[in-house]
């Protein structure tokens, strides 16, 4: 297959790598996951209260997410440039289409494996925080959002943030639509 591609095959591969990378970072941002390469390893070097330590951690998390968002912008710029560098004939060529689909599938599989590993680590950590002793009965508004309100109450200590929870669950189901499609009686999208 490689010998069928012309001189722009390297540009095509680079383009596909950026598309895959952008997709991976987008998923991480939507799910609040910061991959190792984006984590800020700075630590305060003096004794201080837990409140200040928590504020420092929050600032590091927020800065990491901002760096990821900026990387998405840079990826989009590079994708647009590479798209113009790859000849239109190349993109319409059947051999290139087949090569592109295979290469993108391969790259996406690798990125998805990395993403799910990060997601599982996050879920393992969250589940370790919950024990039966931490549960308490709460009164929740019965407006059709009670499921999401219960989760928001537990995570954010505020059931009014139910829309955030709903959106994160929707994004998660969209990202894993192949897993959830058999449980949903209409289109996941």
Automatic annotation (TrEMBL):
InterPro entries linked: OTU_dom, Papain-like_cys_pep_sf
Domain named OTU: residues: 135-189
Transmembrane segments: none
Superkingdom assignment: Eukaryota
PROSITE patterns in UniProt: OTU (PS50802)
Protein name: OTU domain-containing protein
Organism: Dreissena polymorpha
Lineage, highest ranks first: Eukaryota, Metazoa, Spiralia, Lophotrochozoa, Mollusca
């Amino acid at each position: 297959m490689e010998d069928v591609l012309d001189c722009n095959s390297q540009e095509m591969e680079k383009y596909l790598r950026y598309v895959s990378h952008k997709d991976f970072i987008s998923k991480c941002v939507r799910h609040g996951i910061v991959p190792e390469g984006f984590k800020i390893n700075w630590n305060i070097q003096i004794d201080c209260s837990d409140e200040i330590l928590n504020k420092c951690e929050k600032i590091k998390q927020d800065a990491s997410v901002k760096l990821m968002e900026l990387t998405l912008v840079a990826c989009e710029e590079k994708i647009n440039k590479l798209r113009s560098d790859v000849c239109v004939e190349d993109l319409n060529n059947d051999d290139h289409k087949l090569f592109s689909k295979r290469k993108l599938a391969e790259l996406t599989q690798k990125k998805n494996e990395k993403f799910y590993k990060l997601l599982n680590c996050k879920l393992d950590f969250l589940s370790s925080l919950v024990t039966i002793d931490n549960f308490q009965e709460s009164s929740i508004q019965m407006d059709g959002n009670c499921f999401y309100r219960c989760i928001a109450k537990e995570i954010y200590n505020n059931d009014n943030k139910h829309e955030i929870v709903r959106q994160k669950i929707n994004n998660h189901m969209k990202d894993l639509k192949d897993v959830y499609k058999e449980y949903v009686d209409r289109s996941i999208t």
